[in-house]
Amino acid sequence: MFSFTVRGRGLVNIDHIDSSFIIRHPCALHFWWMLKSFTKSIELSTQRLEAEKQKSDLLLSRMLPLPVLRRLRAQKTVPAESFDAVTIFFSDIVGFTTISANSTPMEIILDY
């Protein structure tokens, strides 16, 4: 819903503009149509942006620990952590490129 100010009338919602106002003012119909079109465009863009934000939030929640994610969302820095002992495991599956080229992701997970 979009509103604008009309001199002497205060805030006006474009969905509730009196039709006599549009008829009496030749440019008002064009202005109203352009404003309505622009409003719908912004609403659609906002919906798309929100959908993309939800996708990125879901992806981040799967990749990062919750405390780190909360700090990032609050636009705070995330301090580096140190650990006394860690293990890093590197693995290679021989022929994985060929296997993955000929299989779906679920087949790879279930079969291997």
Automatic annotation (TrEMBL):
<dbReference type="InterPro" id="IPR001054">
    <property type="entry name" value="A/G_cyclase"/>
</dbReference>
<dbReference type="Pfam" id="PF00211">
    <property type="entry name" value="Guanylate_cyc"/>
</dbReference>
<dbReference type="InterPro" id="IPR029787">
    <property type="entry name" value="Nucleotide_cyclase"/>
</dbReference>
<feature type="domain" description="Guanylate cyclase">
    <location>
        <begin position="87"/>
        <end position="112"/>
    </location>
</feature>
<keyword id="KW-0547">Nucleotide-binding</keyword>
<keyword id="KW-1133">Transmembrane helix</keyword>
<dbReference type="InterPro" id="IPR050401">
    <property type="entry name" value="Cyclic_nucleotide_synthase"/>
</dbReference>
<keyword id="KW-0472">Membrane</keyword>
<keyword id="KW-0325">Glycoprotein</keyword>
<protein>
    <recommendedName>
        <fullName>Guanylate cyclase domain-containing protein</fullName>
    </recommendedName>
</protein>
<keyword id="KW-0812">Transmembrane</keyword>
<keyword id="KW-0456">Lyase</keyword>
